[in-house]
Design goal:
With about 90 residues, the protein is mainly α. The protein has one domain. Helices cover about 80% and strands about 0% of the residues. Helix 1 runs antiparallel to helix 2. It is elongated, with a radius of gyration of 20 Å. The protein starts with a helix and ends in a 6-residue tail after the last helix. Pfam families: CGL160_C. Its main location: membrane.
Length: about 90
């Protein structure tokens, strides 16, 4: 069977993937709603402009995820790896 720490690692990884997907969905969902709002309230040009902003935000998130996923333990500063000492 899987060790407790391995189970927790797998669970946290799944949760991490779920959070990433949720953020992307929120970005697209809210972005789409605001784009429609811009088109209706302002103009088609404003809507298109806003949609480009949303698209770049989504792209940025993707690149950020790729970067974060490729980080290894060696990239993490020593200070973050130390066990916290309770005072």
């Amino acid at each position: 069977g899987l060790k407790e720490s391995d189970k927790r690692k797998e669970f946290n990884l799944l949760r991490y993937e779920a959070i990433k997907d949720e953020l992307l969905l929120l970005t697209v969902g809210i972005g789409a709603a605001c784009t429609i709002y811009c088109v209706l309230v302002f103009s088609l040009e404003a809507g298109i402009s806003y949609a480009f902003g949303v698209a770049f935000s989504w792209l940025y998130l993707q690149l950020l995820y790729r970067h974060a996923d490729n980080l290894s333990k060696e990239d993490v500063p020593e200070v973050f790896l130390k066990k916290k000492v309770k005072k």
